[in-house]
Write a structure and sequence with these properties.
The complex is a heterodimer of chains A (262) and B (333). Chain A has 262 residues and is an alpha/beta fold. Chain A contains nine helices and twelve strands. Chain A folds into two domains: 1-77 and 157-172 and 183-228, Rossmann fold (3-Layer(aba) Sandwich); 84-156, no CATH class. Chain B is 76% helix and 0% strand. Chain B has 14 helices and no strands. Classes of the chains: A alpha/beta (262), B mainly alpha (333).
């Protein structure tokens, strides 16, 4: 596996948010991090992608500590889409997507033929080609999220990280984004790592799930191993009834109650 | 697709340059003493003497040049600050930079009476940096940073404080008149020798153009910038140094002046969009033209008396600021 996380610890001020987590990200798979609010899942994602610093441990890509790699070089290996980025203030769709080519450019950033080809491909595959000349601001939430994904794709990386890519989208648009990621994974073989809130979406679209609680890794494995009554009790403090999705056969949380007392 | 977009930008830039030349022409040919085009030409090429030509050569030319570079420096400093902090109401005058430079200017005039223009400029750089560090320090000490409005409030408080020091030094050392001559924000008394500051501003402007692409990426979102492989700490440091040079240089020429850095980038954005590769060059031209016009109007509106440029600009700037605040502090929202 190309990307390994070894004993990583992250904290703000005096407080430790992520406690010595070790894991490996499976290549060519969709990996999802789940956990309650404030459990450190976004923090972990940011630490792995060097958006924030970690206190100890290391993140290793192809045998190299990412801290020892040039940040621009790393940007050709992994892309990150932060949680609900600002609305890009009037940039055109095409302009925004073209910034995905930044790690490959020098000087003033005139686009090469290869750059243009990648931008066209990214617009095509995300279904955003029709509004390439529109302002990002003018799009709906679902379209805008697809444009940001197009920018990450233009970055031409094997590994793509996404922090809650479905937040603020309605149900249909959530599914649209997840289907797009699934397609990229299956057809293009991209490794996808994301944070999701919705357990059933995580179960349906992931090959591998990491469950976090209070900055500790509770369970890692296939959806069937992680979406269980026992794990959900520990991670979310809920009493869940787990069944099977009649269409996909994946585990599904049918209903749940809060665990009272204690 | 991209090329047609670029051509239209150069057309816009060309139109802006034409407007600039018209304004510069008006500013040089009009004033308390009337001048014809022939006179200007003679003053430029001939060696004719006389008080009349020397007025042109020694007063109106350097003044127009100074006005242009003050305007472009403040506009570009404002554009960089707005992009870097993603705060639409950032301005070197509102966030304490020019008042910091102004304070150092007062201190320099008090302690080093015969200070050269160069020395005054360097102390202005230090002052601008002090103002910026205090205001952004307050911002950074709050977890998650301050909202645009709160940052402006912090800027106003720090500005009042630094201004008080400048005034105090002025009174204590009996140099209030010298200081206020600068702080009135006029270009009265600009000569060729004070233009020694211009090369520094030019340097700052060129650097701003060089980093403009990085600025667009940073203006999207800081995490996006890191993800795209930008060394954000290095880039932000360079940007801050450029802002300090531009704001400090402007103060050394004209004194404390707010709102130019706020207004111009917003006008420019409405014309060329949100790519700083286009915003920065356009801000240089539009900021320069705006300031040349403001200085010209302040000379002729009540000739032969000078109307303070600061008051004129505040008259336009304040309503503009209020409109921006009403829009909820979003850039062109």
């Amino acid at each position: 596996m190309r990307l390994q996380v070894e004993d990583i610890r992250v904290g703000y001020d005096e407080q430790t948010i992520v406690h010595d987590i070790s894991m490996a990200i499976p290549d060519g798979k969709i990996t999802t991090i789940i956990g309650a609010n404030g459990c450190g899942k976004s923090t972990l994602l940011k630490a792995i992608t060097r958006i924030i610093n970690h206190e100890s441990g290391q993140v290793v890509l192809d045998g190299k500590n990412i801290r020892k790699m040039k940040t621009k070089e790393l940007a050709t290996q992994l892309a990150i889409l932060p949680q609900s980025p600002e609305s890009a203030q009037g940039l055109l769709v095409e302009e925004l997507v073209s910034y995905g080519r930044f790690p490959y450019q020098k000087g003033f950033g005139n686009l090469s033929a290869k750059d243009k080809e990648m931008i066209d491909w990214a617009l095509e595959v995300t279904g955003t080609k029709d509004f390439r000349h529109k302002a990002v601001d003018a799009l709906s939430g679902g379209q805008r999220q697809r444009v940001w994904i197009a920018m990450a794709l233009a970055q031409e990386t094997d590994i793509i990280f996404l922090d809650e890519p479905t937040t603020y989208l309605d149900m249909a648009h959530q599914l649209e984004v997840l289907e797009l990621l699934h397609m990229l994974n299956v057809q293009e073989g991209r490794t996808i790592v994301m944070v999701l809130h919705d357990l059933n979406q995580a179960a349906r679209f992931s090959d591998y799930i990491l469950a976090l609680s209070h900055g500790h890794l509770i369970r890692a494995g296939e959806p069937e191993e992680v979406i269980t009554t026992e794990v959900l009790k520990e991670v979310f403090n809920i009493d869940a009834v787990i069944g099977k999705d009649p269409r996909t056969n994946k585990p599904m949380c049918l209903t749940y109650d809060l665990i009272k007392g204690e | 697709m991209k090329s047609s977009y670029k051509i239209s930008f150069f057309v816009k830039l060309f139109i802006a340059v034409c407007i600039l030349f018209v304004i510069a022409f008006l500013a040089i040919t009009n004033g308390a003493a009337h001048t014809t085009l022939q006179d200007v030409w003679n003053a430029m090429v001939a060696k004719e003497g006389g008080q009349y030509y020397s007025e042109l050569r020694e007063i109106r030319f350097p003044r127009a040049i100074a006005a242009f570079f003050v305007g472009s420096a403040l506009a570009v400093a404002g554009a960089i600050m707005q992009g870097m902090t993603r705060n639409p109401i950032a301005d070197p005058g509102l966030l304490g930079l020019t008042s910091g430079a102004n304070m150092m200017l007062a201190i320099t005039l008090a302690f080093i009476p015969g200070a050269s223009n160069l020395m005054i400029m360097f102390t202005c750089f230090i002052g601008a940096a002090i103002g910026m560090v205090i205001v952004y320090g307050i911002g950074m000490s709050t977890r998650g940073g301050l909202s645009p409005m709160k940052l402006v409030l912090a800027g106003a408080a720090v500005t009042a404080f630094l201004q008080a020091i400048a005034d105090g030094v002025g009174i204590l050392f009996d140099i209030s008149k010298d200081v206020s001559m600068w702080t009135a924000g006029g270009l009265v008394g600009t000569t060729w020798t004070s233009l020694i500051i211009v090369p520094f501003i030019v340097f700052g402007l060129l650097f701003a153009i060089l980093i403009s692409r990085q600025l667009t990426i940073l203006s999207l979102n800081e995490e996006v910038a890191v993800g795209l492989g930008q060394n954000t700490i290095l880039i932000k440091t360079i940007m801050m140094v450029v802002v300090v040079i531009l704001a400090g240089g402007a103060v050394a020429l004209i004194g404390n002046l707010a709102f130019v850095g706020l207004i111009i980038p917003h006008i420019v954005r409405a014309v060329v969009g949100h790519d700083y590769r286009l915003i920065i060059p356009m801000s240089i031209i539009v900021g320069g033209a705006f300031m040349t016009l403001a200085d010209f109007v302040s000379r002729v509106i009540n000739a032969p008396f000078e109307t303070p440029t600061v008051s004129l600009i505040a008259l336009i700037g304040l309503p503009f600021f209020l409109v921006l605040v009403r829009k909820g502090g979003r850039v062109n929202g």
